[in-house]
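During the second year of the project, the team shifted from modelling isolated chains to modelling whole assemblies. The rationale, set out in the original proposal, was that interfaces cannot be judged from single-chain predictions alone. As a representative example for this report, we include one of the complexes processed in the last quarter. Its constituent sequences, exactly as entered into the pipeline, are reproduced here:
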Amino acid sequence: MDFGLDDDHRALQASLTRLLQRHAPLAQVQAVAAQDEPTDPVLIHALADQGLFALLVPTDCDGLGLGLLEAALAAEALGACAAPAPYLGPVLSGLALTLGGDAALKKRLLPAIATGSLLPGLAISEASSGARRNFGVTASGGRLTGTALAVVDFATANGFVVASRCGGLFWLESDASGLSCNRLTNIDRTRSLGELQCHDTPALALDHGDVGQTLRTVENAARVLVAADTLGAASTMLTRAVAYAQERRQFGREIGSFQAVKHLCAEMASELEAARALVWYAAHAQDTLPDQATLLACHAKAHLSEVGTFVARTATEVFGGIGITDALGLHLQFKRIGLNRQLFGAPERCRVDAARAQGLIGQRPPYPAQAQV
Amino acid sequence: MKLAYAPADLAFRDAVRDFLATHATSWPKRSESMRPGPDQIAWQKLLISKGYAARTVPEVYGGYGAAPDLIKSRIIAEAFAEAGAPGGLQNQGVSMLVPTLLELGTEAQKRRYIPPTLTGELVWCQGYSEPGAGSDLAALTCRGEDVGDHFRINGQKIWTSSAHVADMMFCLVRTEAEAPKHAGISYLIFSMQTPGIEVRPLKTMTGQAEFNEVFFTDVMVPKDQIVGERGQGWFVANATLKHERGMLGDPNAAAARLRAITAILQRETVDGESLINNPLYLDRLMRLQARVLAMEANGLRLLTAAQKGEPAGLSNLIVKLMGCELNHQLAGLAIDALGELGVLYHGGPHEVDHGIWQHRYMFDLGLIIGGGTAQIQKNIIAERGLNLPREPKLAKPDAVAR
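Output from the structure prediction step:
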């Protein structure tokens, strides 16, 4: 029994944090976020060199073969500085390919993901969040038709993993016929979303093994990683709020000596510290406790969404008026937390899924095969 | 990160489970009284002999004498919780006085008081809070006057749970009138039979008297009934308080409560529909389950830190605040799930679970306040955990006047 991070985990956190301090300091993130198409090729290159996209790729496909706890620690570090770089898309697409692709496809794609030359977007919103009216992709005879909403890491994507309405998973080349892609601008300028419109578009089914289990594993991993991203982003907001409360003076004393402010900080720290243990536990469970994997992923996602939202608004409030300015840059994490909350199932949906995972209520009904209008 | 138990730990768990199954007929009934009855004392003695209670207390003081092993302690707690078996005694004597004496008591005090305290035969109460010294405990004014080989005690204590059944009190008394606030206190232990002690029950909103007020009039306590040095009582008491705060906010208790509430939601029907199928109740249950899981994971983290001798920092400081609040919210959900049945109390018809959820909802509000209020806990978290500045000291009134 040993619950906590070991030296390898701490080394991974430290090296990634060092890299991010060098390549994604606040001023740099703000400059990227102000661009029309906010991407940072230098940062992406540096992260790829460090092996970020290789984390979950098996070693026989040139990856690092690490587990979800390591991937979650990386997500936390990225969220902490609101890194304007793809992560969820490539890492989770790689996981889907690893579990559902055939040997030839894996040999072709996974080494390219590991090096960062292939950065797929992930289009599983209709499975994980549920299909909104007019959205969802149907599959027939290896061809996809319909629209996938909220494709993650869209701007840099040169390929896609797509979930269909019936719970199938597909690999989609970015130059496939009948595919059109639209960028969706969102609050978070550090990560990109898009939609895929498919019209009889050829795709490869990732149907090696149990497809339902593969989709569930990818969905669980996605929920844990956004929870970890929120943990990192919220921790930064708390750290900055506490530093400000130690230094900012009003009425002749540091504002952090007023209990009204001090208690806000204590409440944030208490919520986050307990949430941190839950994220580690949930991440570790994905690889070691299969019976609890779904339950913990759902709870980690839902709980971090709530705690993150609380910290995002409270930390901003500690700063007073300066907290809402663009110059301070606190809103980068605020918006990151805001996007994370909605991705891969908002908290209400995740809690229903948590209840299902322990048999308190029935299983999720199958999606209607046809788009509802 | 390794969450599974090692084979030796699993074997130990099997032994605990076997013991509980074999002795299921000897489990004492839960008792309302704060004083253990004969069957509870017999059970406690059996548990000590097996190392399932007083596990790390040296044999010479009546314990089992095992080396500290947090994993085994956790396995014992889990196995007892899983079986629904009554665990070792957790009264203030066992949980607070014994660790304090082990750390700071004289050899004679340890030999005399620890063995009967462990078995439940000697019952203690804690004399700390006073009407004028709650959160500001060090402002206590209960006076111990030096009269030769005795202290003469005059004053009042409050929130003294179990004072009405206790044999002994451990008590904070101001013995050094001239010393600064924190340096004038001594930690005394004395019999509740000493002349001049009056105990008055303090009835709370639950309708029961879980606490008492204790009044001292010229109570004579021999000077050798002190733990630590004269004027060192504040530091002795702090050694005890850290044991108390770990007790308040135990995530195992929250997990057990969550299981009971889940069963209520599955069992209760409204208009023929099970409450578990009501999305609003289910959402509340799931919100609280996430919190219970987070506090359990935090508990594992604390356990590992303690095992490795590493500082636990914030994860330790938050336990009392978060745990007590969580328990209170759990009780609130149980009441709401029961609706009008949830307000039945005082033993009438249709009362569910002897009104335990209302009792917990009210009593737990006291726990949020007691043992360091939620607000004091937040000060501690902010000042010790986050290094935020302390409240500035007010200028003395006479300085202001000048």
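Chain B touches chain A through 52 residues (CB under 8 Å). Residues 30 and 138 of chain B are 36 Å apart (CA to CA).
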